[in-house]
Amino acid sequence: MIGTVIPRSRYFAAKKPEFKSPGVAVVYPRSETNTNVFEAIKHQSKKQGWDVPQSYDYITGQFDAAGAVPKLNRAKMEVVFFLGSADDALSFMREAE
User: Fold this and answer.
1) Which distant-in-sequence residues (6+ apart) come within 8 Å of 29 by Cβ?
2) Is the pTM of this model over 0.85?
3) Phi, psi (rounded to 5 degrees) for 23
4) Backbone angles phi, psi at 77, to 5 degrees
């Protein structure tokens, strides 16, 4: 599944005119798999001509949405790949509203 999600996500974002050279962030719980996904996103971003994505990793079960969202806003991240759990994603989206 990861192999199909990343190219599709990159393709979707790449076709949006407002995303010609966006700030890209990858938010994920630390794990070998997620580190590999982050590396794949970096590779695809480079192919697209985007800036190098910023990594925002956290310890599983300790996601701080209230701290992460302001950091992403200050860094002007326009595209965010979120690799965490469904509960963490909901927390992230609520905080970002």
Assistant:
1) 57, 58, 59, 60, 61, 63, 83, 84, 85, 88
2) no
3) -75, 125
4) -75, 125
- pLDDT tens, position by position, 40-89: 999 988 888 888 999 999 999 999 999 999 999 999 998 899 999 999 99
Torsion over CA: 85, 88, 94, 97 (sign): negative
| H helical segments located in the chain | 2-14, 32-48, 65-74, 86-96
pLDDT confidence of 16, banded at 50, 70, 90? low
Q: In 3-state terms, what secondary structure has residue 59?
A: coil
Residue with tokens 């925002």: 56
Cα dihedral 28/2/7/11 (nearest 10):
-60
CA distance 17 to 58: 31
